[in-house]
Backbone:
């Protein structure tokens, strides 16, 4: 098929159309940054051609040379045959305007917390300058730690992960953003390595997929580290540890922000004395909660 495609496909428009057809035919799953076959086709085509990722239209009818066609078709073929997320093929993932290096040592970044950090933590954090110490728990690629350093310019950030491989990737991203002096990478099983430390802000996007859902994940997710996906039968093992220990690691006015996927209805009944603050995200208000140290202490945690 691809030999024939090389003969008949000539323009960017041709290649994007061909990619959409192949992706739909193969039944690919899109949940790692792009949401449709069209978005994925446009992204991979533009990436292979070294074109701006936000400027497809001006180039749609540009005729391509054979080497360019081959580069795009190779990416399309690899995406279909391996079912790897596009981010692993291009070695990059985006959170808004921020680009991060990724490979199969880390989960592909896709946290709602990224969109909340600039302003959505008000009024709990009135001014960015009030955050002097911050912690990113289960940092993975280091993306949230980097965004905290960007949005809270006076903050020193600790970034923790259990996986040494993930921390190697995080180190690449920290170095790429020139934040080696402000972000401290630590290997730890959750909060173990920072016992005795306190923070103005703790954020975490921990593993939260329940066992039944892990067993039914599309093939694309199976390329991600298993450690970063599931967390016990109901997906909340890590979240419970975080909730029940966070107050010791928060300063008096400190806040905890945790992403838990679709687990709100499972989590809330387990903590009837906690009035979770559910933050509005682009997909609704059931995915990320905020708790203050005061709330945790009053509930006995």
Residues:
């Amino acid at each position: 098929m691809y030999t024939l495609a090389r003969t008949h496909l000539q323009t960017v428009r041709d290649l994007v159309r061909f990619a959409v057809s192949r992706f739909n035919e193969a039944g690919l799953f899109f949940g790692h940054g792009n949401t449709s076959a069209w978005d994925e086709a446009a992204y991979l085509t533009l990436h292979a051609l070294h074109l701006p990722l936000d400027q497809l239209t001006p180039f749609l009818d540009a005729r391509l040379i054979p080497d360019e066609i081959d580069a795009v078709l190779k990416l399309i073929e690899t995406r279909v045959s391996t079912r790897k997320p596009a981010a692993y093929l291009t070695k990059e993932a985006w959170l808004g305007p921020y680009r991060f290096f990724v490979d199969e040592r880390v989960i592909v970044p896709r946290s709602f917390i990224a969109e909340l950090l600039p302003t959505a933590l008000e009024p709990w954090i009135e001014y960015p300058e009030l955050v002097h110490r911050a912690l990113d728990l289960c940092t993975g690629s280091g993306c949230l730690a980097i965004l905290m350093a960007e949005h809270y310019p006076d903050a020193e950030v600790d970034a923790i992960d259990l996986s040494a491989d993930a921390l190697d990737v995080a180190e690449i991203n920290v170095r790429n953003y020139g934040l080696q002096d402000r972000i401290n990478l630590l290997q730890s099983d959750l909060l173990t390595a920072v016992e005795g430390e306190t923070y103005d802000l703790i954020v975490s996007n921990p593993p939260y997929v329940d066992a039944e859902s892990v067993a039914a994940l599309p093939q694309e997710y199976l390329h991600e580290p298993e450690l970063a996906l599931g967390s016990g039968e109901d997906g909340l093992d890590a979240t419970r540890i975080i909730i029940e220990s966070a107050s010791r690691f928060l300063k008096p006015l400190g806040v905890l922000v945790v992403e838990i996927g679709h687990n709100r209805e499972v989590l809330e009944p387990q903590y009837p004395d906690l009035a979770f603050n559910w933050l509005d995200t682009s997909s609704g208000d059931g995915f990320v909660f905020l708790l203050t140290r005061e709330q945790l202490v009053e509930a006995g945690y």
Remarks:
- The first helix runs from residue 2 to 8.
- The chain has two domains: 2-90, 107-298.
- The radius of gyration is 21 Å.
